[in-house]
């Protein structure tokens, strides 16, 4: 454990204490508004999602443009459970979700039935993204689709899925998706206490995911993973089944994204197919790139910073928001390949370079491991 | 974060009794906060910005005449950014942080559905101004919008009277078209139109009950060749028409293809429920001449009240200094007028109730309040909808509608499904 | 008594009809308020000189007749001459006498309007008049309407015209219309013969009528007629299947051509250069907006105010063929505009990222966001209106299969572009350099090729082709800030399936995807399911051929 890691861990510990204990306590006492807790709860879910993208992209070199799909799938599974929990309190006072009544259904379609169980739904939050990721990943990695092809194919995957979920025939609410949630585990979802609970849960999951990824990257597995990123061919020649490693990481990341989605949905109160459109995935990648890929703290910082910026800019300069986002992205790609986290090192490097002109620029794009 | 800061700062300042914020406190006595919740960015901004504009105009007009119950309206404008979760977040902000007495907003059904729980939880009041599918009745929403029986069924009546025998149902794949078409299917059957004369296809559930009628395309669909070929065959025998619930954008490729296939309004008219004067501005006018529309207001209504409204609004547009208001080429349309009516109805209800409290205002609204708006008299109903006049119009090359038919005082009925019984063995 | 009165009124009406020329009648009718009465008077006009009648009624329908007030407040119907001066004033002439009324501004006077009741009446008058019209299209329409109305009173007129008609399509239409009317005949034999004719003709419009006939015959227990009607229906169903198949093939071809036009630029930037340009869609949008601007310059001019800067482009107010030719001018300009955009993009950003394809994807996505917002700020968030020149709207129907001119044009255009690009790559010095650089950049550089310049030009070429695609898309769909987003996934798919670095592969894949999409749509009857299945199909296809249809052979380990 070097000095930098120690500093990082210390920062994480402080953040963990603030998120899990201090903020909720302040909220309970009224010093922090419910609104703020709610917004930050959302940011935390985004941060979890961003870590999953980074594990894929920063550590394994797989730029997936379909991560929003897994996020949305997890969200949908949670949403289905929440829809069942509304019971007969919907607009129609019928025991099935409103939109099904809309579409002329009188009985619950069979695939909806098991979602009345919380345990089953939580299992599906993990299992469904895993199944989709396994099926897609197996096919893709087996035929050695990589680099930009992988990105384009994942984009097609999420695009196709969004088209599918937009259809009302899917019986998943079509364009409107799920909304009007009422209860989760017997508690009123709209209640400040429940929201606080969800905030704490998101914080715990974030810290846990962080810990898990940190552990994973230090194992031998993590080394192979980075080796795949730097040169897959050499890994293959060394006798490793690179495809299996990639598949494993892809599935793990999809599960993490699914969990993030499941936590996100009860906090924002809606899930619909626009969450899985290709641009959403690209937006997550912006968070990671801005925060600093190839690190674990970077994506978290990026996700929170960009979303906070978005909340502010859409209010202050709604017309310029997209230009700010796009411009930021271009700048980061061109001039800050290591993102915010890598900025201090970059500045140091810049000055070092000015001091000793004989050493060539260290601006090689390969992201270094923490 | 920023909010939190300002709030705690404010609390600190209050505690210390700093006098500088006192006038602000006094000011708050004379104003009432009113929320405006529309998308000012993203794809829905095209339609919704006009509603923000007309709301600001209405507030100015009311404030100039002394405000609501002696209090000036202080608008709180937030941007839903065409992002449904964000709508819920912003609604929360309006109700919990800004404590708005009433909110005017939303366009799409999904945005309304996403804010509905927020309004119900905080017992807020939302005025919703855009035609919708019905099948909803919340005590926290006042629907100035057209219900299905104030737009879709009158159009069918009109088309039947014009001798149309075959109806092709086409829409964008979301809740409003799906529900409307199911209601229309029941309605057509009840009028003796046989099932084989209703085009677009059906989907049945296991028991053989029809659960979806009509053809649906996703948002942003560009390729209408196949559907047009189908309509061409469907209408080949004459006396056919198309009932379209296609959403704004997709109308361009649809009508371009429609015209290219040699279909015209005379051969097979299209009645569209989602094209108002405002949407018309972005459509190929030449190819739309003679197609039908149905709303509870058209800019071409020739009444003094409407003339005043249109002139005042145009005048306001010229004079306003609000950021981002487009000044040229503006028109008025039904959702705008229904927003306008909503503000005045709320004002009347507040003044009648003598209070800004939501429960009392609602009671006043439910007791029935009338307002003479630009589209004629509107009256609030017990079920939180509006009784209003319905107009059928046909499009002209200048983007306006020529009014063909008026149905007076149509009662807004949100619950229509299952109310029309099919005519059996009609001959 | 009442009969007598009616007769008198009728007489008066007839008398006035005879005494007054159509011009005079219409000048009076235009001024009436009640459209029912207007419809009645227009209806009474049938039988007058057809050419004059058609011209007059069409002028009215198209808003070419105006109402002005005399000094004494009485209203007069006028038409306007095409002699607009600087103040927009035109000469108004009285419709009935042709005498000059004065000079007026068109926007200030009332247009004589029509509504559907009136237009219906006009149509029936026009139909009869148009039966003898020299214009084939109008004649056909009139015949069709008569058939579908099944009015036995029209039979003599049709029979009389049948003998005179020379054009084969019109002959067929008359045959069809006569048979349709004969379905209403008293005699069963005539009906059966009519059924047979309709079946042989494969008449699609007659299906509904035949069904009614079959139903009625069934109820009346006329077995022979039922068999005849059902037989005809079966024949027609066979014809419909043919029409649908042929139609689907054509539509598939046209969709494929559109995919090809949008993807060919990408096939060059991505396929040949290996740059992932996510802003490719916005290059298409640049082309579409250029077309819009050119159209406005040919028309009424354009005023833009991006960032508060006012830009005013004067309009030429061209009409007719001159206005229609705007599209010809727009084509090269949209190529140029997008090529310049591409050039700037390459110089400004992409040239730093040639070794980092994944990052070029990200940076260009940023560019795409910025460009979209710039479009929004410049042209507004609304879609803009691009109208098609008249020679691109319309269609050509062969044996009931519809060929839209815009679609035919896209196909021809796609062929031209592919030919042009292939020639450029194979026969020109620049093409040679491009291929050299693509094959081995270092080696080419060693041989003295200025690879930087070749990159720049290649990228500009790819972007310019995207701009051309934009000019086309403006003719069939929306032109708005997010136009590009609609096509980006599709164009990437097309290039990847075709095999990167191969133009022919892109051609085959575009046509294949187009045909598959349209066939699935036809079979499933659902526009979205087809698209989803195509996407799934593409993902599976790439399992089988990971490098696409045509693989560029290479000995290098990592591409």
Describe the structure.
Chain A is mainly α. Chain A has one domain. Chain A is 69% helix and 2% strand. In chain A, the strands form two sheets. A two-stranded antiparallel ribbon of chain A has the order 1-4. In chain A, helix 1 packs antiparallel against helix 7, helix 3 runs antiparallel to helix 5 and helix 5 packs antiparallel against helix 10. Chain B has 427 residues and is α/β, with parallel strands linked by helices. In chain B, 39% of the residues lie in helices and 20% in strands. In chain B, helix 3 runs parallel beside helix 12 and helix 12 packs across helix 13. The longest helix of chain B is centred in the first third of the chain and has 20 residues. Chain C is α+β, with helices and mostly antiparallel strands and 559 residues long. Chain C has four domains: 79 residues, no CATH class; 49 residues, SH3 type barrels; 75 residues, no CATH class; 234 residues, no CATH class. In chain C, strands 4-3-2-1-5 form a five-stranded antiparallel sheet. A two-stranded antiparallel sheet of chain C has the order 6-7. In chain C, helix 2 runs antiparallel to helix 3 and helix 5 crosses helix 6. The longest helix of chain C is centred in the middle third of the chain and has 50 residues. Chain C is flat and about 90 Å long. Chains B and C meet through helix 3, strand 10, helix 8 and helix 9 of B and helix 5, helix 6, helix 10, helix 11 and helix 16 of C.
Total beta strands of chain B? 17
Q: Pairing-aware structural class of the strands and helices of chain B?
A: alpha/beta
- Biggest chain contact: B-C, 52 and 58 residues
Number of helical elements of chain B: 13
Strand percentage of chain B lies at: 15-25%
Overall pLDDT of chain C = 83
Q: Count every helix of chain C, treating DSSP H or I runs of 4 or more residues as helices.
A: 22
Identify the strand order in the major beta sheet of chain C. Answer: 4-3-2-1-5
Give the CATH class of the largest domain in chain B: Alpha Beta
Distance between the termini of chain C: 99 Å
- Which regions of chain C are unreliable across 5 or more consecutive residues at pLDDT < 50? 11-17
Topology-level CATH name of the largest domain in chain B: Rossmann fold
| Euclidean distance between termini CA atoms of chain B | 69 Å
Quantity of strands of chain C, as a count: 9
Shape of chain C: flat
